[in-house]
C-alpha cells in the first residue's frame, strides 16, 4: 500500500513539473565548423620551436647513409653529390674555427645538414607527375580576402560558429520551438536547422545533452539560474557541420569566430554564451 | 678446550666462510646498508652532470622535446576535449565502487590470517568508476607496441631485424623482449630474444598515431577496424597489424628492398578513460575505425 | 704516394691505410653471409656508435639564456592550460545547470538527455587539422544524410 502511495506521489510530482507549456521550451543549435588547418603559431611559439629544433639537430646522431643508399648505386652517387662535405683535417693547416672532428663524414661539433637531391622537373617526361614539386595551397582563401562571412571556407585555422540575425533579439544562435512531432531536443534542433537552411547539410550531433540553457523573460535575457514564472528557455545543443552548406532563403546568417561573435552579439548574450565558443 | 681449538682452526661454519675468504660480505661504499637499491655510480664525483635531471641541458642525455607544433595534441585540446566532456557528463552521478576483495565471515578458526576472499563474480578487483567532470576528461596517455617474432626461436636474426623495424616506424629506440619461461611445446627456451617492444608518449606518439590513421589504415585492403570487443575493461584498447599491413608504413614502403621480411605487431593504447566504451569514443575522435558489436549496446544505437 | 706513406708510422700503415677518407688498401673479403651482414648493418643503424656528436658545452651565460627561454615557455604553457581548464569548468557547470533545469521543466526530455551514451563515435569525416588545405577546401555536396 505504501509503495503504491509513493508511486502516486512521484507521478503527481512529474505532472506538476511538466505543466510548463511546451512552447516555453526551445532548442537552440550551436553549429560548429572545425578548423581545417593547424592553428597559426604565435611569434614566441615560432621562435621557440625553431630553437628547440636546432638544438635537436645539433644533438642528433649521424645519418646512417650506408643503410638507405646501396653502395655503388645511382641513388647513392646522386645523394653524395648533393651533400656539402665537411672540411677535413689536414696537417700543417691552421683552422680558424677549430680543428675539424670528423667521424663518418660528419663534423661532430655542429649539426649535420642533409640535402635531399632534387631532380629537375620536366613537364614533358612520363615521370613528371611523380616528381612534381609540392606546392602547398594557401592558408588564406578567397573568402578571407573578400571577408565573406557566409562562406564555410573562411578562417581555416579557426573554429567557426553559426549565428543568425533575429528581428527582435539581434544576432544569436538559431533556436527553434519544440513541436509535438520532434519533441526531443537534439532531434528538434537538427530538424529545425534543416527547415531553415535546406536539406543539403551533413551534421553530427555531439550529444543528446544540452550544453547550456539561456532564459528569456519577455524577450530579455536573464541569469541562467533564474527560476520564475513565464520564462522562455533555450536549451543549446552542440553539433558539427561535416559537409554541405547552410543556405537559408530569407534570413541573415554568418559563420563567425569567437572574437567576431563578441563584436556582433549584445553584451549580455556574449557573457552568457562566451565559454561555449572555441578559443581557437 | 681442545674441542674449541679444533673448531676454531679447522672446522668452519658456513656463516663465517665470507670472513675467511677475505672479502667483505657487504658493500663498503657508503651508505653501506640500505633498504632501497642505490645506483652507486651516481655517488661518484667524476661526472656530476649525469646526476642532473635529463631535462637539464648539462646532462649528456638531454634531448629537446617541443621541437615542432603538435597538431594532434592541439586538435585534442581545441576540439575533442569539450565534446568528450559533453558526451560523458551525467547529472546525478556518484562513485560506483568496483569489485573488491571480501572479508571472510569468521565462521572457521582457519579464517584467521587467511588472505582475503576473491571479489564476487570476478577473479580480480575492478576499479571504482568516478563521476565524470571537467577534471577527468579521457585522453591518450601512451601507446605500447609489442612485436613478438615467432620465427626468432629458430633464427635470432629475426628478433634483431624486428628491433630495427620498430625503430624505423616509430622513431624511438626499441627494447628487445626475451622469452620468460621454457615453453617446450613452442620449442622456446627462457632467455631467447624473441622480438622488440617500444613505448610511445608525447610527440612521437602523436606522430605515430597520425601516420597510422592517415596513411596506413586507410590503405589496408578490406580493413574493417578495431574490434569493438577489444579492451581490458579499464579503458585500454588493443589491436594488431599483420606483417603485410606493416608494409604500408611510409618508412618501410619507400625502402622496399631493405625489407624482404616484415613482422606484425600488437598495440596497446593506454588511455585515462575509466571504461572501454569511453576509450573507444575517445579513439574514434582521432580517426581510428571500429567495427563489430559492442557489449551492452544495441546495434541500432551505435553511431558510426 | 710514397712520401705520404713514409710519414705515417709503420705500425699504423700496416693496419689501415687511409688518405683523406679514401681507403687505399683492399678491405678483407667479408666472411659473414649476406643475411648476417644485413642484420649487422641494421643493428649499426639503431646503435649510437660512431654517430654521437660532441657534447654540448655551454658557457654560463648561454646556459642561463637557455633556462630563461625554457622557463618562459613553461609559463606560457601553464597560462594556456589554465585558460583551457577555466573554460572547461564553465562548460561543465553549464551542462549540469542545463540538465538540472531540464529536470524541473520536463522530466521526459531530461531522461532522454541524461542517458549514458554508449557506443558513441566521432564521425570519420572529422579530420585532424593539417598544415595546408586540400585542393578542395570544403565538400558542398552531401554524400550520406541519415536524418
TrEMBL record, chain A:
Gene Ontology MF, one: structural constituent of ribosome
- Which segments cross the bilayer? none
Instruction: Cite the entry's keywords alphabetically.
Output: Mitochondrion, Ribonucleoprotein, Ribosomal protein, Transit peptide
Q: Which GO terms describe its cellular component?
A: mitochondrial large ribosomal subunit
Main location per the UniProt record: mitochondrion
Q: Spell out the subcellular localization from the entry.
A: Mitochondrion
- Residue ranges annotated for the Large ribosomal subunit protein mL46 N-terminal domain, each copy included: 24-144
Note whether Mitochondrion occurs among the keywords: yes
Keyword Transit peptide annotated: yes
Q: Which family does it belong to?
A: Belongs to the mitochondrion-specific ribosomal protein mL46 family.
Q: What is this protein called?
A: Large ribosomal subunit protein mL46
From TrEMBL, chain B:
Q: Which residues form the Large ribosomal subunit protein uL5 C-terminal domain?
A: 194-290
* GO CC annotation terms, alphabetical: ribonucleoprotein complex; ribosome
Q: Which residues form the Large ribosomal subunit protein uL5 N-terminal domain?
A: 136-189
One Gene Ontology BP term is:
translation
Q: Which UniProt keywords apply?
A: Ribonucleoprotein, Ribosomal protein
Task: Using the UniProt annotation, give all residue ranges assigned to the region (Disordered).
Answer: 96-123
List the GO molecular function terms. structural constituent of ribosome
Coiled-coil annotated residue ranges, if any: none
What InterPro entries does the annotation carry? Ribosomal_uL5, Ribosomal_uL5_C, Ribosomal_uL5_dom_sf, Ribosomal_uL5_N
What Gene3D superfamilies would the database entry show? 3.30.1440.10
Q: Is Protein biosynthesis set as a keyword in this record?
A: no
The record's PANTHER family line, in alphabetical order, gives: 60S RIBOSOMAL PROTEIN L11-RELATED (PTHR11994)
Q: Which family does it belong to?
A: Belongs to the universal ribosomal protein uL5 family.
Protein known as: Large ribosomal subunit protein uL5m
Automatic annotation (TrEMBL), chain C:
Q: Which Pfam families match?
A: MRP-L28
For biological process, the GO terms are: mitochondrial translation
Q: Name one GO molecular function term.
A: structural constituent of ribosome
Domain of life according to the entry: Eukaryota
Q: Which residues form a coiled coil?
A: none
Its Gene Ontology cellular component terms are: mitochondrion; ribonucleoprotein complex; ribosome
Which of UniProt's keywords are assigned here? Mitochondrion, Ribonucleoprotein, Ribosomal protein, Transit peptide
UniProt main location, coarse: mitochondrion
Location of the protein in the cell? Mitochondrion
Q: Gene3D superfamilies, per this entry? A: 6.10.250.3440
What does the sequence similarity comment in the record state about its family? Belongs to the mitochondrion-specific ribosomal protein mL40 family.
Q: What is this protein called?
A: Large ribosomal subunit protein mL40
Amino acid at each position: 500500500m505504501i509503495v503504491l502511495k509513493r508511486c502516486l506521489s512521484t507521478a503527481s510530482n512529474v505532472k506538476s513539473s511538466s505543466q510548463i507549456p511546451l512552447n516555453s521550451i526551445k532548442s537552440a543549435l550551436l553549429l560548429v565548423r572545425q578548423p581545417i588547418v593547424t592553428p597559426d603559431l604565435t611569434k614566441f611559439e615560432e621562435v621557440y620551436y625553431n630553437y628547440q629544433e636546432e638544438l635537436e639537430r645539433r644533438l642528433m646522431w649521424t645519418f646512417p647513409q650506408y643503410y638507405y643508399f646501396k653502395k655503388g648505386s645511382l641513388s647513392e652517387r646522386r645523394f653524395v653529390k648533393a651533400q656539402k662535405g665537411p672540411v677535413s683535417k689536414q696537417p700543417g693547416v691552421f683552422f680558424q674555427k677549430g680543428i675539424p672532428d670528423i667521424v663518418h663524414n660528419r663534423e661532430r661539433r655542429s649539426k649535420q645538414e642533409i640535402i635531399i637531391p632534387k631532380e629537375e622537373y620536366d613537364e614533358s617526361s612520363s615521370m613528371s607527375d611523380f616528381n612534381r614539386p609540392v606546392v602547398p595551397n594557401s592558408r588564406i582563401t578567397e573568402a578571407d580576402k573578400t571577408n565573406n562571412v557566409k562562406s564555410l571556407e573562411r578562417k581555416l585555422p579557426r573554429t567557426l560558429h553559426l549565428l543568425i540575425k533575429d528581428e527582435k533579439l539581434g544576432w544569436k544562435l538559431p533556436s527553434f520551438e519544440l513541436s509535438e512531432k520532434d519533441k526531443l531536443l537534439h532531434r528538434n534542433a537538427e530538424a529545425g536547422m534543416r527547415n531553415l537552411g535546406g536539406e543539403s547539410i551533413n551534421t553530427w550531433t555531439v550529444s543528446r545533452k544540452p550544453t547550456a540553457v539561456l532564459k528569456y523573460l519577455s524577450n530579455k535575457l536573464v541569469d541562467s539560474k533564474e527560476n520564475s514564472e513565464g520564462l522562455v528557455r533555450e536549451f543549446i545543443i552542440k553539433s558539427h557541420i561535416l559537409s554541405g552548406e547552410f543556405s537559408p532563403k530569407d534570413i541573415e546568417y554568418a559563420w563567425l569566430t569567437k572574437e567576431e561573435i563578441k563584436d556582433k552579439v549584445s553584451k549580455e548574450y556574449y557573457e552568457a554564451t562566451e565559454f561555449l565558443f572555441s578559443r581557437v | 678446550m681442545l674441542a674449541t681449538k679444533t673448531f676454531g682452526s679447522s672446522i668452519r661454519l658456513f656463516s663465517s666462510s665470507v670472513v675467511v675468504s677475505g672479502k667483505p660480505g657487504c658493500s663498503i661504499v657508503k651508505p653501506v646498508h640500505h633498504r632501497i637499491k642505490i645506483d652507486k655510480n651516481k655517488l661518484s664525483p667524476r661526472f656530476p652532470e649525469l646526476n642532473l635531471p635529463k631535462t637539464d641541458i648539462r646532462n649528456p642525455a638531454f634531448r629537446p622535446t617541443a621541437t615542432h607544433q603538435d597538431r594532434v595534441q592541439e586538435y585534442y585540446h581545441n576540439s575533442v576535449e569539450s565534446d568528450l566532456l559533453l558526451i560523458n557528463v551525467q547529472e546525478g552521478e556518484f562513485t560506483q565502487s568496483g569489485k573488491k576483495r571480501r572479508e571472510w565471515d569468521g565462521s572457521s578458526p582457519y579464517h584467521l590470517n587467511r588472505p582475503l576472499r576473491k571479489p564476487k563474480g570476478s577473479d580480480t578487483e575492478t576499479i571504482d568508476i568516478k563521476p565524470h567532470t571537467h577534471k577527468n576528461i579521457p585522453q591518450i596517455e601512451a601507446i605500447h607496441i609489442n612485436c613478438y617474432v615467432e620465427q626468432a626461436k629458430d633464427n635470432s636474426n629475426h628478433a634483431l631485424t624486428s628491433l630495427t623495424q620498430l625503430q624505423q616506424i616509430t622513431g624511438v629506440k626499441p627494447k628487445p623482449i626475451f622469452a620468460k619461461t621454457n615453453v617446450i611445446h613452442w620449442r622456446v627456451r627462457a632467455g631467447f630474444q624473441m622480438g622488440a617492444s617500444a613505448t610511445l608518449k608525447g610527440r612521437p606518439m602523436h606522430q605515430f598515431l597520425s601516420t597510422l590513421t592517415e596513411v596506413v589504415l586507410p590503405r589496408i585492403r578490406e580493413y574493417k577496424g578495431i574490434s569493438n570487443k577489444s579492451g581490458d575493461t579499464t579503458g585500454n584498447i588493443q589491436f594488431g597489424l599483420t606483417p603485410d599491413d606493416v608494409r604500408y608504413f611510409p618508412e618501410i614502403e619507400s625502402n622496399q628492398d631493405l625489407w624482404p621480411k616484415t613482422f606484425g605487431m600488437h598495440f596497446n593504447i593506454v588511455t585515462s578513460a575509466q571504461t572501454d566504451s569511453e576509450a573507444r569514443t575517445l579513439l574514434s575522435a582521432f580517426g581510428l575505425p571500429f567495427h563489430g558489436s559492442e557489449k551492452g549496446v544495441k546495434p541500432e544505437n551505435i553511431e558510426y | 704516394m710514397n712520401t705520404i706513406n713514409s710519414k705515417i708510422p709503420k705500425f699504423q700503415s700496416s693496419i689501415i691505410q687511409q688518405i683523406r677518407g679514401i681507403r687505399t688498401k683492399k678491405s678483407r673479403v667479408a666472411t659473414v653471409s649476406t643475411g648476417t651482414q644485413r642484420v649487422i648493418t641494421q643493428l649499426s643503424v639503431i646503435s649510437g656508435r660512431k654517430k654521437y656528436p660532441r657534447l654540448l658545452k655551454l658557457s654560463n651565460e648561454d646556459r642561463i639564456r637557455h633556462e630563461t627561454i625554457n622557463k618562459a615557455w613553461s609559463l606560457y604553457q601553464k597560462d594556456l592550460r589554465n585558460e583551457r581548464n577555466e573554460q572547461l569548468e564553465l562548460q561543465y557547470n553549464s551542462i549540469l545547470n542545463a540538465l538540472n533545469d531540464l529536470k524541473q521543466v520536463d522530466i521526459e526530455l531530461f531522461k532522454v538527455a541524461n542517458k549514458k551514451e554508449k557506443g558513441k563515435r566521432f564521425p570519420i569525416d572529422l579530420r585532424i587539422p593539417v598544415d595546408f588545405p586540400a585542393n578542395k577546401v570544403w565538400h558542398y555536396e552531401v554524400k550520406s544524410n541519415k536524418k
